[in-house]
Amino acid sequence: PSEQAARMKKLQEQEKRQKMEQEVSQFIQATGEPRRRFQPMNKIERSILHDVAEVAGLTSFSFGDDEDSRYVMVFKKEFAPSDEELDAYRRGEEWDPARAEERRRLRELVAQQEEAELERGPAPPGPPNDYKDKYRHLIGSDAAKAAARTMEANKAYGCVPVANKRDTRSIEEAMNEIRAKKRLRQAEDE
């Protein structure tokens, strides 16, 4: 019984192969057809179709997500698909050359804009947005202005009068004194 089943399976595969070869030869003879989409089929049938297409000198690809809906598309060599076309089929979309041309133009435009931006140089340093906008709900829009009007500048800020300084030595004098103390300590340790 298993021999008979194996023989039947082999016969069925041969029949499928012959049927696919006929369909592929019809496709090759069809002059106005650059590509043909076959019905969804199982893995073995897809494998057979890929072999038939390769022998016939055609390019073939499988598309579809799950095993039940995967199908094979066969292309004539002179109409081999571009990467964009293959990506469209992989996404499950229909290939539209006009839309693809529009996308290509958009990509070129974006590339030109990026190039122009690079030529302009880096953006001036600074935060990407204004913190006041972020915290407007907390501080309001004129709280900072009111605070700035009432604030008085401290004229002595950052300036300490000589009379208030405890250490009147220069930096060089202070450093020399520190070095002398270190030498003294080292001499004591020895």
From TrEMBL:
Residues 10-20 have a biased composition (Basic and acidic residues). PROSITE patterns: R3H (PS51061). This is SPAG7 protein. The gene is Spag7. It comes from Climacteris rufus (rufous treecreeper). It comes from the Eukaryota. Residues 1-20, 110-133 are annotated as: Disordered. Residues 14-77 form the R3H domain. GO terms for molecular function: nucleic acid binding.
